Amino acid sequence: MSISLPSAPQVSLPSGGSESLVTGVIKTMADVMTKMAIMMKDMYTLTKEMHDIMLEMAKTNKEILKDIRLLMNETTNEMVHSMKTMDAMMSTVMLYQQLMLIMMIVVVLILAFLVLRGG
Prior knowledge:
The protein is mainly alpha-helical.
């Protein structure tokens, strides 16, 4: 069993150099199509590179935001620790003030007792 392919149609061109014109047009169209294919390939490569750059930027931005969040958490923790320390210090100062007041009252009472007893 054999398959027969149809033969190419025969085109008769008028004489007088029309064949070279048609050949030139076909070659020019082939060159244009080749250059368009190369340009489309370059555009695809450029688009792919831009996509890769955008992915890298997104990754970098994500890392930067993560670092900022960690830094803010650390700063907040340090502020809370500082405020707790200040609160403890203020409580200690208030306690010392109260003790000083009590000691002054005791000294005044002792002096008053000695003055009244001696007088």
